[in-house]
Amino acid sequence: AQKITQTQPGMFVQEKEAVTLDCTYDTSDQSYGLFWYKQPSSGEMIFLIYQGSYDEQNATEGRYSLNFQKARKSANLVISASQLGDSAMYFCAMREATPNFGNEKLTFGTGTRLTIIP
Amino acid sequence: NAGVTQTPKFQVLKTGQSMTLQCAQDMNHNSMYWYRQDPGMGLRLIYYSASEGTTDKGEVPNGYNVSRLNKREFSLRLESAAPSQTSVYFCASSARDRGIYEKLFFGSGTQLSVL
């Protein structure tokens, strides 16, 4: 069974500082995908970044990067130069073994609430 | 571009009542999903539909039914609501991105309370 663990229920970070949100996962699959989604106060979940288990390089999307450490089963999200608009809940998620398109069954972590302080 | 639209945004039911949550997407996506979000837990998949005319159970399907009315619309029905179904419900659709993974697009959620 897959499992996603986010150990930081809440974080407070000064504006313009870099932020690392932790995510560890547990799977026996060799092929899997890892995602990060952002949930602002409006409630809508927003896709941030994706990392495939066979990707050799860490994924990056603008100010977001994913620090993927496969041996440690870790997929931490790094936000550079944080902004007030980054205040939100952040969820790590994993999909099962095969990329079964049209059937994106994700397992989500419990989330981390990030608050950016001016 | 509205994306994924859910109605209603809030609903209060009494135990035993029934209701249908509506979801529509205007992005021409084939796949649609219903998730629930409970405090202290991650989102859990209730049902999904990989294409028009097909539906499949997710992790927590008990107490729910779904209908994929057409490509745009995917509804979730509670036949006899129970307090354990108090939750925030999210509808989503997905599109293939970079040929590698499906990117989920979510609605803004329905907050449901069952008394």
Provide an overview of this structure.
- The complex is a heterodimer of chains A (118) and B (115).
- Chain A has 118 residues and is mostly beta strands.
- Helix content of chain A is 0%, strand content 50%.
- In chain A, strands 2, 5, 6, 10, 11 and 12 form a six-stranded mixed beta sheet that branches. A four-stranded antiparallel beta sheet of chain A has the order 3-9-8-7, with no helix packed on it. In chain A, strands 1-4 form a two-stranded antiparallel ribbon.
- Chain B is mostly beta strands and 115 residues long.
- Chain B is 0% helix and 54% strand.
- In chain B, the strands form two sheets. In chain B, strands 2, 4, 5, 6, 9, 10 and 11 form a seven-stranded mixed beta sheet that branches. A four-stranded antiparallel beta sheet of chain B has the order 1-3-8-7, with no helix packed on it.
- The radius of gyration of chain B is 14 Å and the shape is globular.
Offer a quick outline of the entry.
The complex is a heterodimer of chains A (118) and B (115). Chain A has 118 residues and is mostly beta strands. Chain A has no helices and 12 strands.
